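seq as requested:
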Amino acid sequence: MTTETSIATHPVAWLRPLPKDYRTPLWRWILIPASALLLKRNGGVWLNGELRLMADHLLYVESKLVRSPKNPPATWRIKLEDISGISLKKGMVSQTLEIEASGGLVKLMTVRSEEFVTKLEARIRREVT
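struct tokens:
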């Protein structure tokens, strides 16, 4: 069994979108209205993890701090050849990294990610050409 090594890694928080038919329960609006408001405003839940640039794909692995065998960490991958656009938007404290791929738009919250994004863009250009 071989383990693939990453070219670069970067801590991020992934905005996992809520299902289209999701309705915030009334109890959440009553007990924790700030949380309910953020869910509604963001359209999803932020999950802390790590973004890994591999030879031919991007890999996201959720932090394992509070996960159990019954509830394993979320992971996903995007082939570099499927990425059609990358944008980095600066906020007050953090940045939003948006990756447009054939599967849709992925939003990641991060800080000081310029070096990682530069490596990702360079890798994509090599994959495309």
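The mean pLDDT is 87.
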